[in-house]
Amino acid sequence: MRELVVISAGLSNPSSTRMLADRLAAAAQRGLEANARVVELREHAKDIANHFVTGFPSPALDEALDAVRGADGLIVVSPIFQASYSGLFKSFFDLFEADDLSGKPVLIGATGGSARHSLALEHALRPLFSYLRAVVVPTSVYAASEDWATGGDATLADRVERAGGELAALVDDRPVPAREDAFEEPVPFEQLLAQQHN
């Protein structure tokens, strides 16, 4: 079973950003046997800010960061503010080291009030994840307010399915990472006994 982590940077509840994230996750799971864990960044906003000041993540934020590092694939969706991703979205990904996302398949999505901001996916999100050495799927998905007016138009649904399928194929092609098992090679009893006598 593969592990997908879905990052939603929506600020309201409910939000169109989370709706798009959920649709993308469902589309990826149709082509891949995978669990999908959603991380709502608004729930970690204060901890992200504190991390920059103190240098230490809270336990909840640390768990979210570890989930991203250990994921087989990522789905990331941000609202578009001032023609780019949100500050909260950028701050979260600023917490990763240079190689944390290297080679990881990523599906990028965004939401906004107008279709005019759809290019933010290509001039903001795609370069960010290319810099982090992730492998970004060819199809990005932008949903404007009018896309939700009738429950999402057919064009949006087609893009969601295509992007989800691309992510599923990329994740499926990656070798399954070896999960660490602390009990796989226990220290032999004789060795433990010898250490006590020394």
UniProtKB/TrEMBL annotation:
It is an enzyme of class 1 (oxidoreductase). InterPro entries: CE1759_FMN_reduct, Flavoprotein-like_sf, FMN_Rdtase-like_dom, NAD(P)H-dep_FMN_reductase. Residues 4-148 form the NADPH-dependent FMN reductase-like domain. GO terms for molecular function: oxidoreductase activity. It holds the Pfam family FMN_red. Keywords: Flavoprotein, FMN, Oxidoreductase. Its EC number is 1.5.1.-. NCBIfam families: LLM_duo_CE1759. This is FMN reductase. It comes from Saccharopolyspora griseoalba.
